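Lab notes, practical 5.
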Amino acid sequence: QVQLVESGGGSVQPGGSLRLSCAASKNIYSMNTMGWYRQAPGKQRELVVVFTSSGSTSYADFVKGRFTISRDNAKNTVYLQMNSLKPEDTAVYYCYAKQLLQNYWGQGTQVTISS
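Output from the prediction step:
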């Protein structure tokens, strides 16, 4: 079992920034895949960014150039730096991990972009 705990959500104005954190209960380098998804009200959950153990990183087109994923292996933590936020970025953001054939999700953290 892997527990994922997100933090860092909140409410900011358009153009602002937030940094989300995802603390994992196990070594993150043991994960096959880690990343972030989001779900806006009335919409399906969608991929924001993921990275794999092979070293590849994939960003959704709508966040390219604005969001950056990073990791701190010593802290077993993955970060999502979000800049130039837009109202359409409003959603619950979920940390995701896959280890072997098992998928794990955090509880989600709310991000609200509003003036």
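Observations recorded by the TA: The mean pLDDT is 96. The CA atoms of residues 53 and 77 lie 15 Å apart.
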